[in-house]
Design brief:
By secondary structure, the chain is mostly helical. The longest helix is centred in the N-terminal third of the chain and has 11 residues.
Length: about 120
């Protein structure tokens, strides 16, 4: 006898929910549509910078759950905490967890094209 089991609990409890890979024992926090749009917009940038159109409230909430931090490629920001004031001045960038969540939300790989002229 064969029994089909859902791959994760999200598909078992909410019909129509997308089937996203999850690791055993990990907790994936719920995000709002605005947070999802911000993550996907950040994933379109090669270094994960979120656009200026993302409001401070969304940036701060994504920083609270660890998906957004300060741009670590800038020496002045390296090692700094992503406080609301720092995000307001410098903007946000995806963290490694943010990149993983963006991919889980449907962000594809980006392509860099170099054109010489």
């Amino acid at each position: 006898m064969t029994t089909d089991h859902p791959r994760n609990s999200a598909t078992a409890t909410s019909p129509g929910a997308p089937d996203r890979p999850r690791t055993a024992g990990s907790f994936t926090p719920r995000i709002t549509p605005a947070q999802r749009r911000a993550l996907l917009a950040g994933a379109r940038d090669p270094i994960g910078l979120l656009p200026k159109s993302v409001n401070l409230r969304t940036l701060a909430s994504l920083a609270d759950i660890g998906y957004v931090g300060l741009d670590q490629s800038r020496d002045v920001l390296r090692g700094q905490e992503a406080t609301r004031d720092a995000l307001d001045v410098w903007g946000g960038a995806l963290t490694e967890d943010g990149w993983q969540r963006a991919r889980a939300e449907g962000a594809g790989r980006f392509r860099i094209v170099v054109v010489s002229g």
